[in-house]
Amino acid sequence: MLKKIKKKIKSLLLGKKNIDLQSNKSKYILSAPSSDISSLNIFVRKPLEEKKYLEIGDESIIKGDYIFEIQEGKIKIGNRTFIGGGLFICIDEIEIGDDVLISWGCTFIDNNSHSIVWSERKDDLLQWKKGLEENKIGGFYKDWSNIKKGKIKIKNKAWIGFNSIILKGVSIGEGAVIGAGSVVTKDVPDWTVVAGNPAVFIRTIPENER
Fold first, then answer.
1. Residues in contact with 78: Cβ distance below 8 Å, sequence separation at least 6, in sequence order
2. pTM of the entire structure?
3. How far apart are CA 159 and CA 208, in angstroms?
4. Helix, strand or coil for residue 209?
5. Confidence band (pLDDT; 50, 70, 90) for 16?
6. Active-site residue list
7. Who's near 190: CB < 8 A, 6+ residues apart?
8. For a FRET experiment, which of 58, 67, 76, 148 has its CA 20 to 30 Å from that of 167?
9. Whole-angstrom distance, CA of residue 126 vs CA of residue 113
C-alpha cells in the first residue's frame, strides 16, 4: 500500500507529461566516481543549467527519487553513505553526512508543500491545473513564496529505519537511530534512539555501543 501511495505522489509531482527522470542524471549531479548512482532518479523543475543540485561523496550507494521543486534546492550526501531508495523533495537544503544508513521507503521533505493559510493556498489547484492543461510539468506555475521550509540535516553515522518520514527543519544527531516507520518532526540528539509517530525518545545509546 505504501509503495502505491508513493507512486501516486510521484505521479502528481510530475504531472501527466511523460518524463524520463534519468535523462538529466549526469547534468545535475556531481558524484565521486567510486559511488554507485545507477539506481538514482533526479528531476529539476525550471533548472539553472550550470547548477549541480545533487552532490555525492566517495564510496556511497545512492538510490531513490530526488525532486527539486525550485531552483534554490540543494542536496549534499557524504562519503560511505547508503540510501536504499525513497523520495526526497527539496526547495531548501538537505544535508546527509558520512557513514549514514537510510533504509528503503523513506521520505525526506524540507517544506510544507502548501501554506496552512487558506487565502495563500486557494489558487494552488488552479495553478496546477493550468500547467497540466498546457502539457507542462505539474506545479509549473506554483507560487512557493508563502511555503514554509527548513533545512534537513542528517549527521554522520546515523541510521534511519525503513518507511520513516523526515520533515522540514529537522536535525538528526550523530549516531542516532530512527525506528522503522517513524515520523520525525523535531531534532534528535546525538546517539539517541527514537521511534513512533511522532517520533519520541526511546533511549540513549551508551558509550560501549558506539
1. 57, 60, 96, 97, 98, 99, 100, 156
2. 0.87
3. 17
4. helix
5. very low
6. 114
7. 155, 173, 174, 175, 176
8. 58
9. 15
For residue 102 the three cell numbers come to 537510510
In this predicted structure, the answer to whether residue 120 has a pLDDT above a threshold of 90 is yes
- May I ask the CATH class of domain 2-111+149-163? mainly beta
Confidence of residue 25 (pLDDT cuts 50, 70, 90): low
Residue in the block written with cell 553515522: 157
| Grid coordinates given for 113 | 508543500
Mean pLDDT, the chain, whole residue set: 90
Q: Using CB atoms within 10 A of its CB, is residue 106 exposed (0-12), middle (13-18) or buried (19+)?
A: buried
Q: Where are the domains of the chain?
A: 2-111+149-163
CA 100, 76, 52, 165 dihedral sign is: positive
**pLDDT of res. 50:** 87
